[in-house]
Amino acid sequence: MDVDQYLLRGYTSSVTHELPSCDPEDDLRKGPWTVEEDSILMEYINTHGEGRWNSLAGNSGLKRSGKSCRLRWLNYLRPNVRRGNITLQEQLLILQLHSRWGNRWSKIAEYLPGRTDNEIKNYWRTRVQKQAKQLNCDVNSKQFQDAMRYVWIPRLMERIRASSDSTVLSGQPTETATSTAFTPPDDYCLTDHSNTAAAGSSHYWIDPNYLPEASATSSGSTELQDWLNIPEPTSTELSELNCYPMNGQYYSSTNGSGCYQDGSEIQGSDHIESSNSWSTPGGDLVENLWNEENIWFLQQQLNSD
DNA sequence: AACGCGCGCAACCGCACATGT
DNA sequence: AACATGTGCGGTTGCGCGCGT
After folding, report:
1. What are the pLDDT digits (tens) for A23-51?
2. What are the entry keywords (predicted)?
3. Which of A75, A94, A156, A292 qualifies as a FRET site for A132, CA 20 to 30 Å off?
4. β-strand partners of A203
5. What is the spatial distance between Cα A229 and Cα A212, in angstroms, rounded to a whole number?
6. How far apart are alpha carbons A293 and A146 in whole angstroms?
7. Chain B: nucleotides under 7 Å from a protein CB?
8. Which residue is nearest to nucleotide B10 (CA to C1')?
9. Of A182 and A42, which is predicted with more confidence?
10. Is nucleic acid strand B under 7 Å from A12's C-beta?
């Protein structure tokens, strides 16, 4: 084992004083892959195909475990792997599918072509769990699930819609508007809002759990809510969240009118402006979904339980 | 400029299950 | 049936980078 290989055995200098053992597995490299290793792996797979990872690792000349080779191929080198810039639609799908399947990342990844289970898992941990932590609640708690259902997902849909609108108006395709090339679960529905005044050519797949019941399409819901296809929460759900509907959003209140952290009253237009500010065309698609106002807004709901 | 800190992500680990002998 | 080997999955780790001080 040469010095470089030995140093690659561990990421910290604290291990460099250890003597190499006679275990054959200690001859295996660990840590980041080099360009040379990548090209060796790709060339081998192009010639021999993927699979039989242990024999691949041995025959290719790579001093890597079969597992490591498989992981590198699936998560990085495989054709059509997409990394970074999780689109709004993908974010929406991840939230919906996770609420259905939980931490079954590979299952969720099936419906996001080009995305690996590892990337989705990382997205969940770094973005979603962080928000739960900021709200001081467990990501699996009913409170957080409700927050996702009634606030996060509707606002995500609104952003997708706004993004589609800007596409129609400008004629410039955006990442969001064109990211329809995924295969939804069998029971997912393709929404078509092209006949509404606001939507233009807007399509996206949606979990039927977020579609209104046939009876829920009655006169009770707002136009925006109809468009968003968000089911009216039951009165029980609303009382649990201690919130009430207004302008297609749900507002928390203990006295009939919400207020900001400084005590000033929340106006409906405040939230509409806030919503619009999220949909600025050309904005960072992977920006934090929640601004401070949203965090505070949700904390009010959770604290009132 | 130097330092510390937090975040994102690539990679590793342990376990469970499938398949082969 | 029992064991060995291969594969896949979810959880965890820690490096590298950017940012604030």
Report:
1. 454 578 888 899 888 889 988 888 888 88
2. DNA-binding, Nucleus, Repeat, Transcription, Transcription regulation
3. A75
4. A192
5. 6
6. 17
7. 7-14
8. A32
9. A42
10. no
CA distance A55 to A137: 46
Contact flag, residue A76 CB and nucleic strand C, below 7 A? no
Distance CA A219, CA A227 (A): 13
CA A187, CA A208: separation in Å to the nearest integer?
7
Domains of chain A: 3-77 (1.10.10.60), 88-303 (no CATH)
- Residue A47 DSSP SS3: helix
Q: CA A105 – C1' C6 distance (Å)? A: 21
For A61 and B21, how far is CA from C1' in angstroms?
Answer: 27
CA of A297 to C1' of C14 (A): 35
Q: In this predicted structure, what is the pLDDT of residue A10?
A: 30
The b/e string for A19-56 (b: 16+ C-beta within 10 A; e otherwise) is: eeeeeeeeebbeeebeeebeebbeebbeeeebeebeeb
Contact A177, A164 (CB under 8 A): yes
